[in-house]
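Hi W.,

Here's what went into the run:
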Amino acid sequence: MSFQEGPEVNSARRVFVSYIDKSRELYLAQGYGNPYRWAYNCEVPFVALPKPLAECRIAVVTTSSIDEGQEAVDLADRPPKHSYAWPSDPVPDRLFTMDLSWDKEATHTNDVDSFLPLRRLREYEAEGRVGSVSQRFYGVPTEYSQRKTNTLDAPDVLRFCREDGVDVALLVGL
Amino acid sequence: MSLTARHLESNGIPTVVFGSARDIVEQAGVPPFVFSDFPLGNPCGIPYDRAMQRAILGIGLELLESARFPATTVKTPFAWPDDAWRHNFMRVDESNRDALLRAGEERKARQAARKANFGG
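Here's what came out:
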């Protein structure tokens, strides 16, 4: 585990990477003249934990997909994706991520624990820190269409949570 | 992902979002957010670093218990081993401008074919 001061950065500029800026510049350079409008919300919903975590059933939600030998390496190439629910035991050894926009030069996704915290969650479950892990984890596709996420995929995940008696959800986007 | 978190929270299910694209998640407006300043791909910790993965998840669990307000971001105390990714990812400069434009044209053609195949 590295717990350290970051290496030298140019602090005359914003240190945190702005993916909104980067993706806008990249798409412009690729000839897409109409910048993507990212979701922006001032009001944020919030509900407090209703009971101790040690009594809660927890689910994990991911943007990755079940590995079925897909070949698409870009959102533009892949067939339409749908939300899904999949058994969380055993934890899959691999998930398909190549169609998502993560940094394929700097890192890799060969360790699912680096983006799907099911095994670490099971450790906390064994210690009594959390009540239980939902029998299924859920997938939501990354979409350009916010309408599709809001009207189809997010309601699907809510339904999965209710079917599985989930109290709390951990959501991890790549 | 952020929009799904908002939907769950609006329907009574507490959430925590783990991610590394700070601006995108914060602008979408999510309930508790655990931010790790890493290249995109490993928001739960560096691959095979179990201790870090466990610590990052632990921060999320503590945030669930302590959060009293929406849109709370906690930054994890970990650093990626180098910073080259900040510059390199999605890089646009004179060295690759022509190649990007060509790649974009090819991509548009594939998008059109996809639309024809799958209806958009």
